[in-house]
Amino acid sequence: MTEHYGLRPLKVLEDYEGSAALLNVFFSEPISAERLKEDDANLYEVGHTYMDDNGLLAGMTARVRRASVRERQGRE
């Protein structure tokens, strides 16, 4: 049987615990739900761009936040 997964918008407060558990699988530094909450509070609400001294785009932040979820069985 094949498992199907989809993406949904991140539920900011509800998804911190699961996100931290997933990140701890491969990050060498332990990540907690509280740490994710603190980091998230320091990010811009919308994307932010950075222009260099020549007026050229030098950086950009994007906040595409999604969570992977297993889709219910019976949906094909």
TrEMBL record:
Q: Which domain of life is it from?
A: Bacteria
> What is the protein's given name?
Uncharacterized protein
